[in-house]
Amino acid sequence: MFDPDYDLFLAIIEAGSISAAGRARGLSTAALSKRLARLEERLSARLVHRTTRRLALTPAGQDLYDALLPLRSSLKAAEERVSGRHAHVRGPLRITAPTSFGRMHVVPYLPAFLAAHPAVHLSIDLSDEFADLLDGSCDIAIRIGARIGAGLVGHRLGTSHRVLCAAPAYLETFGTPGTLADLKHHRLLATTSQLPWQLDGPEGTVTHQGQSHVRTNSSEVVRELALGGCGIALRSLWDVHEALASGALHRVLAQYQGSQDVGIYAVHAPTPALPARIEAFIAHLGAHLGTGGALG
Q1: Cα separation, 55 vs 285, whole angstroms
Q2: Tell me: domain 162-258, CATH 3.40.50.300, correct?
Q3: How far apart are CA 266 and CA 95, in angstroms?
């Protein structure tokens, strides 16, 4: 059995305050404060700095928190195996995904997953901010990039194929670039973190420096500006394949594409035995995404 004082310590940190943890557990703030103080006395170490607004972990508290998270996960996995629950897809499943990709290529597949696994209690957060998968607040993150993050486990679902594209109205006004060097005479569209572009082409991988014509942190804004004829963007096929098919966008410099190192991953914290609900969701999403289609 997991030490109840350790369990309460994790609950306090994950809730952000003693009072919030107390409300969730149906315990008084005074009772939890006393339990926390007792744990600190037992360990002969101050675990948190208490302020009127929030709790802050001390170095000793951070060490304990980092050590307890995998232990709790291992214990839960062992309990599921022993009790036979591992074979059943059930329990809470917390997912986070990038806003655009989640809306277009995760949410549409949730009804079928929930219909197949009605005992799963799903919550999903669409955000372009990275969730901390090691703090226990999230089970799976869908991430798009060349790296998944240190200390995490990633399941590659596909490659994020990216192409240079622009609206016909932009190309009619500013012309179509014939070489990569021509891009310096064009308006580029990118989020603040995307440039410089890493492109695979006839000469291998090249880096194109530049500045975005409009400064934004939103990938959806870049897409809409490209559709509106404001410039040339490097966009994922999962995002613009319909616009390319309809002619709303045209590929430019077709001999170049975004680096193939950029993958689409389902990422989770390391665990000795992956819970069945997480395993089932990764398999479900991977079967729908795979290779080709909107990702190809």
Answers
A1: 37
A2: no
A3: 10
